[in-house]
Amino acid sequence: MKAILIILDSVGIGAAPDAADYGDAGSATLPNLAAAVGGVKLPTMQKMGLGNIPPLLHHQPPLAIAGVPAEDAPNASYGAMREVSEGKDTITGHWEIAGLEVRPGFHNFPFENSFPPDLIADFERETGRKLIGNKAASGTVIIEELGREHLETGALICYTSADSVFQIAAHEEVVPVPELYRYCEIARRLCDPLRVGRIIARPFVGEPGSFKRTENRKDFAYLPEEKTILERLVEAGVPVYAVGKIEDIYAHRGITESVHTGNNMDSQALVAKWTREKEKGLIMANYIDYDMLYGHRRDPRGYADSLEKTDQWLASYLPLLGVDDLLIITADHGNDPTFEGTDHTREYVPLLVYRKGQPAQSLGVREGFYDIAQSLAAYFGLPPLPRGASFLG
């Protein structure tokens, strides 16, 4: 008896009703990128009901995913979820999926002169290195802008974004990865009073003009103030297996075993392996490539190709599931590669729920990502959680 929860990082499906409050009116990650590339081929998720989701939303005229029409008889239940927490970042989305509500939202730094002077002074004193950057920026752009200065001086490239993040970039030959992680732990402690969602290590390699970020990225999350469904499961004797950056997002809490894969291919291979091997528990995975490689870089073609590869993987994966297994596919926020800027977008996220041999139905629009946590609690026989409604009949 296994539940598999796959989070397609940033695969939103249409602007949320409050998207304008975040500057995201008109965003729609999946519909817009599909239109931009002349249609996407996702036959496995189409059969699961992915194309049936856009008509459930509030948009007029209704949205559609080019190349993914609605199915008359989908093999999975389908719906959408609206986030109720304040924010549109990774931590907020994942925490709500795990049963929490983030309100008020995490602290966001201003785009210019981002970090308070006392924070900078304390950080420089404790790390022994100067801080350069101090603004909101695309990670690849600021590394090209300041990488040479970093190589010459050893100063740390520190920057933020529209999300609640303090990011530290450093060349692996200047600052060894373990040392960069230690600097991030210092920043984590210093930023806790501000309720900053994540400190992110952004190591890179290469020479000026050809810098490249590595897969040694690591996130240092603000600690949840309430138990997640992961912790509740482990306490009840249900193992939790984490794939990708899940361990970082939940500050290593409520996790029995984890592998920090750095790309979709490795994550998908591990999910399949654990599905074959594990007899009981929750397998929770984040597929990061869509967000990290294509959303922030505003690359619709790359985003579409990556989704198509995952769809091909799903076709081979579904036969591994037994009649008692539960598969949930969703996302944590949007990141429309056709939209202005380089940041996440406030969107509904898709919800596909597959149980072999069981009839499919429309799950409608769920008010709160935490319906997933409530459903997992019901599936594993735990007491009801404080928030959400189970979508398992």
Write a structural description:
The chain has helices at 29-36, 43-48, 90-97, 117-127, 139-153, 177-191, 229-235, 246-249, 264-277, 289-295, 300-317, 371-379, and strands spanning 2-8, 14-15, 77-82, 131-136, 156-160, 165-171, 198-205, 212-213, 218-221, 240-243, 257-259, 281-287, 326-330, 347-354, 362-367. It is of the alpha/beta class. The chain folds into two domains: 2-100 and 224-379, Alkaline Phosphatase, subunit A; 117-221, Phosphopentomutase (Alpha-Beta Plaits), CATH 3.30.70. The strands form two sheets. Strands 1, 2, 3, 10, 11, 12, 13, 14 and 15 form a nine-stranded mixed β-sheet that branches. Strands 4, 5, 6, 7, 8 and 9 form a six-stranded mixed β-sheet that branches. Helix 4 (117-127) runs antiparallel to helix 6 (177-191) and helix 10 packs antiparallel against helix 11. The radius of gyration is 20 Å and the shape is globular. The two termini are 17 Å apart.
